[in-house]
Amino acid sequence: MEIRSTFRFWLFGAGLVLVVAMSAGGLWWANRVTVQRDVVYGEANGEKLLLDIYRKNLTLDYTLFGPKPAVVMLHGGGWASGSKRELQELGMDLAQQGYVAFSVEYRFVTPNSNPHPTQLDDVQRAVRWIRANAAHYQVDPAHISAAGVSAGAHLAALLGTTDTRVHLDPALTAYSSRVNCVASWYGLFDLTQPFPSTPPNMEEQVTRFVGSNRSNTDAYRKASPITYIDRNNAQFMLIHGELDSTIPISQTRQFAAALQNVSRPPILLTFANEGHGILHSANVTAVRQQFLTFLKGC
């Protein structure tokens, strides 16, 4: 009897250890971020359009709590350079916080090709593709935000202020390209205003992006997010350094004032000791905390 009791106790203990081990392993696996590289979200003029996806591994969380909010991430580079992998750290962080993050490539403008609205068409297509594939990636199509840096912030702002421009793909006809919220890191909002011509010569980059010289004021107006502000705009969070010599902080302040007057008041974060980038650790921490709080309302 004593031997049988001891055996039963050992069996129970072994089973408990096994359950704990499986649970620990399951938790590790569930919390691990998976990155899918170079997923094709479309094609334009024979060129594949790619994005990277950051998300946690599939868990019971989806069954219990439903789909996750998504964040579309857009890199900078004057619309002519840069890489979706530049935002990998942000994508990993967002995935750990329970979001599905999509870092989107778009076609680059060159001296002879791809002026505006090429890049807008690409990122609008990306948002619509995400909505069309929401079930597959466990995304809530009603909760998609955009976060952009510099030129990427300009495109993100257009996602939050404009409707789909072209409807060439029948498979995406039913899906909107509008986003709920936009976070902008030192973006451009009014291209009708001249920009600094000092390195990296933003004025030259803007002219190449628009595809016309300053005499064509309507082209610059149509490429400007501030043109489209109305009561239907997304909620905005605007981040900018006062020492920015590439994109003047006046761009963000004027856009914030226009939103305040017509649409929903934005969250505005400015930093006296920052330029074209948020580099000081205390500021990075503050932006991250407020950004994550901002997303919770989206």
Would you mind describing this structure in some detail?
By secondary structure, the protein is α/β, with parallel strands linked by helices. It has one domain: Alpha/Beta hydrolase fold, catalytic domain (Rossmann fold, 3-Layer(aba) Sandwich). 40% of the residues lie in helices and 21% in strands. The protein has helices at 2-31, 60-65, 88-96, 118-132, 134-137, 151-161, 202-210, 217-222, 249-262, 281-296, and strands at residues 33-44, 47-56, 68-74, 100-104, 139-149, 181-185, 235-241, 267-271. Strands 1-2-4-3-5-6-7-8 form an eight-stranded mixed beta sheet, with helices on both faces. Strand 1 and strand 2 form a beta hairpin. The longest helix has 30 residues, at 2-31. The N and C termini lie far apart (63 Å). The relative contact order is 0.11.
